[in-house]
Amino acid sequence: MKSASLIATLTAASLLAVPARAEEPVNFEKAILPIFEAKCLKCHTTEHTDEAGKVKKPKAGLAMDSVAGLTKGGKNTKETAIVAGKPEESAIYKSVMLPPSDDDAMPPEGKADPLTDAEKELLKKWIAEGAKFGDWKEKAK
Ligand code: HEC
After folding, report:
1. Which of 45, 62, 102 to mutate to test the pocket of ligand 1 (most atoms within 8 A of CB)?
2. CA–CA distance from 42 to each of 38, 58, 89, 131 (Å)?
3. Residue 75 alpha carbon to ligand 1 centre in Å
4. So where are the chain's domains?
5. C or N terminus of the chain, fewer CB within 10 Å?
6. 108 and 12 in contact (C-beta within 8 Å)?
7. Distance between CA atoms of 65 and 108, rounded to whole angstroms?
């Protein structure tokens, strides 16, 4: 009897451990970069020359395809583009939370799909956890 209740206890403990694992920190490269790629980088990529030979500058000076660009921020936002630990003060997070009709809403209405609620939550959590880039250095362009 003793060992049966021990097994029951261990089983209950391992079931409880599952939700704890879901609380892992957000991985930038796996969870955040794909959102940026799908919804931001079309307009916010480091200055480069496209196939037609045209020089493309990042909109508002905000390059979101490198650690340096994201840290430096844009023309108006500077280092408040991302304020580590403070999503509510981070322009990148604030811009995706604005109603689509707002002039500052990102991505601009009709130009790319807005973020889903799950994506907004991930972005918020990533910034709240310190906006760490892990091993990611820069997107190869
Ligand atoms: C279709 C092009 C386009 C896409 C896609 C886009 N943006 Fe922008 N973004 C702009 C333009 C244009 C501006 C500057 C004018 C403005 O504020 O409307 C801007 C400005 C910004 C600024 C202010 C930067 C500063 O310092 O002034 C932030 C922050 C920003 N975008 C974040 C984002 C995020 C986050 C995404 C993806 C979710 C995104 N943008 C997607 C075109 C785009």
Report:
1. 62
2. 8, 9, 24, 22
3. 11
4. 25-128
5. N
6. no
7. 18
> CA-to-CA distance for 26 and 45, rounded, in angstroms?
23
pTM, rounded to two decimals: 0.85
Class of residue 84 by CB neighbours under 10 A (exposed 0-12, middle 13-18, buried 19+): middle
Q: What is the distance between the alpha carbons of residues 66 and 95, in angstroms, rounded to a whole number?
A: 19
Q: What is the pLDDT of residues 12-40, one digit of tens each?
A: 555 555 555 567 899 999 999 999 999 99
Compute the distance between CA of residue 137 and CA of residue 68 in angstroms, rounded to an integer: 9
Of all atoms in ligand 1, which is nearest to the CA of residue 42?
5
Q: Say which amino acid occupies 23.
A: E
